[in-house]
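Notes from the 1:1 (GR / supervisor)

We went over the backlog. Supervisor wanted to see one worked example end to end before approving the batch request, so GR pasted a single chain during the call. The sequence is below; no edits were made to it. Supervisor asked that the structure be written out right there so they could see what the output format looks like.
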Amino acid sequence: MIYDQVSEFISQFPVQQLERNDILYHQDDTPQFIYFIKKGLVGLFHITENGKETFLRVFSDKAMLGHRSYFAEQNYHATAICLSKTEIIKVPKEKCEEVCATSPSFLKMVLKRVATDLAEAELRLSHIQDKTAKQRIAEALLFLKLKYPDITWTRKEIAEYSSSTHESVARLMTELEELKIIKKIGRDFEILDKDKLLHF
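Structure output shown during the call:
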């Protein structure tokens, strides 16, 4: 993981404590930092010209973000928002340029991370195109709850993550509860049968 590989370098920068719903950067902002998550969750959202908001992905402990736009010299294509209390390390632009000029190994690590991100994005897009809305929602429920068990995901966030609609998520969750595959607990839910949910 790149965080561990550059831990000595980033340790010289302060850790910033952020709360749920705090914004790291907005879509169309000009990159001024590369961000490292020491602990917490950050969601990436894109807003289209007609105002539709799409939940692109989640970053968790030891993730790096903001690097693609920084190295591409492009404005951010999405907004990064904290989904829980989060500890962030921000590496300023001038320090990034300094280490890149003196450490080819750092650039190689970043390039490897960018290439991995691209492969994961392509696979996710391929899977979305091949699956039904029910399958996408079921997988999103499983992924989000198992990977981030302490987060209460809203129906809207689940819909955005699964490229579905709020209404479809609500209907399917009711159906899954009737089948005793999940149990709704207020706004949250518990998975009762992981295998059935995975193969729903």
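Supervisor's comment: The two ends are 33 Å apart (CA to CA).
Batch request approved.
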